[in-house]
Amino acid sequence: MPELRSGARRSKRLGDLQPPSQPVDQAENWVPPVQNQPRRRVGGRGRGRAAAVAKGPSPEVPNRPTAAGRGRGVRLIDLDPERCQVLPGAPPLATAHPAFNQVEVLANKDIAMGGRSADKIVGVEEEASTTPIPEKVQVGNSPVYRIERKLGKGGFGQVYVGRRESGGSGRIGPDAVEVALKFEHRNSKSCNYSPPYEWQVYNSLNGCYGIPWVHYKGCQGDFYILVMDMLGPSLWDVWNTLGQSMSPNMAACIAVEAISILEKLHLKGFVHGDVKPENFLLGQRGSADEKKLYLIDLGLASRWKDAHSGQHVDYDQRPDVFRGTVRYASVHAHLGRIGSRRDDLESLAYTLIFLIKGRLPWQGYQGDNKSFLVCKKKMATSPELMCCFCPAPFKQFLEVVTNMKFDEEPNYAKLISIFESLIEPCTALRPIRIDGALKVGQKRGRLVINLEEDEQPKKKVRLGSPATQWISIYNARRPMKQRYHYNVADSRLHQHVDKGNEDGLFISCVASAANLWALIMDAGTGFSSQVYELSTVFLHKDWIMEQWEKNYYINSIAGANIGSSLVVMSKGTPYTQQSYKVSESFPFKWINKKWKEGFHVTSMTTSGSRWGVVMSRNAGFSDQVVELDFLYPSEGIHRRWESGYRITSMAATGDQAAFILSIPKRKMTDETQETLRTSAFPSTHVKVGIS
Ligand SMILES: Nc1ncnc2c1ncn2[C@@H]1O[C@H](COP(=O)(O)OP(=O)(O)OP(=O)(O)O)[C@@H](O)[C@H]1O
Questions:
Q1: Which side of the chain, N or C, has fewer Cβ within a 10 Å radius?
Q2: How far is Cα 362 from Cα 373, in angstroms, rounded to an integer?
Q3: For the segment 185-239, what is each residue's pLDDT rounded down to a tens digit?
Q4: Could you report the predicted ipTM of this complex, rounded to two decimals?
Q5: Which run of H or E residues covers position 606?
Q6: What contacts 24+ positions apart, CB below 8 Å, involve 495-500?
Q7: pTM of the prediction?
Q8: CA distance 370 to 376
Q9: What is the helix (H) or strand (E) element at residue 347, kind and residue range?
Q10: How far is Cα 684 from Cα 348, in angstroms, rounded to an integer?
Q11: Binding site per annotation, positions for ATP
């Protein structure tokens, strides 16, 4: 079904884009000198400019055109304002083809028998680990503590036992005989000569259920020091002690108690951001709390709710930002989306499955693109496969939390009740205390099953299976003469273009699937002349440079899987400068850099796994964002639509689909846009849309 959105709001990042005086970048492709070309428009009936939306090819398209259709799938559509009630505008083309197939496992070191903990993306804290820890500590109004054995070390901090020099009573609290002291070097990335970020979070969360108490904090010598309740082993330690596995019964107790801890943390407006076995600690061995669960390490916590307005933070995606631990991170975290409550729950699901099975399907990847490969595998692994040998509630939990919306409020009681059947009714026999979970929906010491019978089944977003599709983007525009050709073989391309040109049409959009071409030609492009090249080289540099010299600018590109490409360049575009990049992965960093120089993405394509992105100055956009995903990013697109963005380019490899959404500089007259996903070129929809 098409998805419709309208309405526009102003962009927040307006004004971010400052073109510098010297934009030519040698590292990329040549950028022609700035030229202030007059904007010429071709007259005629259609004066709307066709939105240029590129396509993404697919390495294998199961819906191959039939022999009869191949090369003959030509449809001519002349849009006559007198006859047409519907205003279809340019139907640009796109295919997205996330085919999740085998992932080559490059190495299998991650799960060495000793049980190595998961890698966390943090800086290397050289100085912090070489500077000697003081022998005695006294910060704030704290008693004096003598430093004893090391309890643990993370990416930022080192944690030691501190024993009171004199006095003290009990095992926890401000007077405890022994405390845990977390040292962070003042040069550490999390400090940068000011108190660690984690301190701010503790200020808001101290006393929160399931979070260890911080009693004192202060600076001594080169270290920022937190004095907190000493806890016992982590779930990682317990898992190792139990022979690198854990009973589903114990994991279920952990599940319900962890959900209740996250609920309390979320209620305070925070998400943890790094849920994993290493960050869940039990109380001290031999103490009354030895079966009680705690969540530590608030260094990556962030607010999901604005402290002042109380509103949910805005959705955003920065594909170059990753925070967390690769093994347990949510797919949204991998993709650089702003953290929200669903992410903690997704990481908890991976934590639980890891504890039971002792392994997650994405362990073992190494190298620079480890995070990409892990994310791809997370998307491609079905809940059935991931939870085989786990009791059904774990799969159910995984399914619920991986299908949550960005700002959805988790139904914690319901999530807890999923595990009810696995919880030992006798309190004394439970391996983990579940006091918090019982309070969430208590009924005589049992977890209440709170399933609403009439609730609609939720649409599953993450299917874990391949999807091959055309994604077409339609803009509602004034009527204009337009025609499309699809399944066009190389040899037939010229005749269609020549015929179109004869009739006063120019190419506004090109795409490719199964090494055949699709093109939209229309009368409303505003171009004054056009050249194109079908080359066996992907984005043929010499030809493009030659045309740039003649003041043609790229307005549309398409790449075929076999490496050939179709580049269309025109005069009469609004562009004053252009640059393009070919890369093996989606070049977000480059795009981000060019945004700051005043360029915007104006066309995009792929060829196999290679991306080709064209950015232009004076593209008529005030702001631009990227939505990058392994599947069609429905939620992200809807959110951007609601904020006034419209899709202006798209492309996809066999793995990923990228959408560029922009806010036009000129006020939009509530331009409606819809996307359509079909398994083959949507010729029927196009016809229905215009008749
Ligand atoms: N209160 C505590 N009681 C006992 N041990 C603790 C306590 N806090 C932390 N630890 C131990 O110290 C280790 C490091 O602590 P923490 O995770 O807070 O540091 P970090 O540098 O922020 O770690 P990360 O790299 O995960 O961010 C923990 O894994 C745990 O083993």
A1: N
A2: 8
A3: 988 877 777 899 999 999 999 989 999 999 999 999 999 999 999 999 999 999 9
A4: 0.97
A5: strand 599-607
A6: 496/74, 496/521, 497/521, 497/532
A7: 0.79
A8: 10
A9: helix 341-357
A10: 45
A11: 182
